[in-house]
Write a structure and sequence with these properties.
Elements (H helix, E strand, L loop, with lengths): L2 H17 L13 H6 L1 E3 L4 E4 L18 H12 L5 H21 L22
Antiparallel strand pairs: 1-2
Helix pairs in contact: 1-4, 3-4
């Protein structure tokens, strides 16, 4: 499976996950399917923390997902109310729709954009 195929699958998982949240580890890189693909903490030579290859990475290739307003709202409200409140469900639905939209947009990008070594910043219409 290519990085692009893995990314599209991860977006679908995230969309589903936002629609049906479970557990306290929801906002953790350990439970994020995109982080499982791209987040590298040790490259064998030195300590790194990069998300190169991930469409959510910032221009430097570092974690960018946490800067989205809907992510911040969802994370903050999540810790305040579990099981989900009505406002949490609305925000989570926005995040699910974001990933649904990204699946459509990302299909248009060449596979090399998703490979960490050939990655360049994704210029996509980032729904916030």
């Amino acid at each position: 499976m290519t990085y692009k195929q893995k990314t599209l699958k991860a977006c679908k998982e995230l969309s589903d996950k936002y629609r049906k949240p479970k557990g306290k580890e929801f906002f953790s890189n350990k439970s994020c399917p995109l982080c499982q693909i791209y987040l590298k903490r040790y490259d064998g030579i030195k300590f790194t923390c990069t998300c190169k290859g991930c469409f959510m990475a910032d221009k430097s290739g570092n974690t960018g997902c946490c800067y989205f307003k809907t992510y911040q709202l969802a994370r903050n409200i999540y810790w305040q109310s579990f099981p989900p409140s009505s406002s949490m469900k609305e925000i989570f639905e926005l995040r699910a729709k974001f990933f649904d939209k990204m699946i459509k947009e990302l299909k248009e990008y060449p596979a090399r954009k998703f490979v960490p070594l050939t990655w360049t910043y994704f210029k996509i219409s980032r729904a916030r």
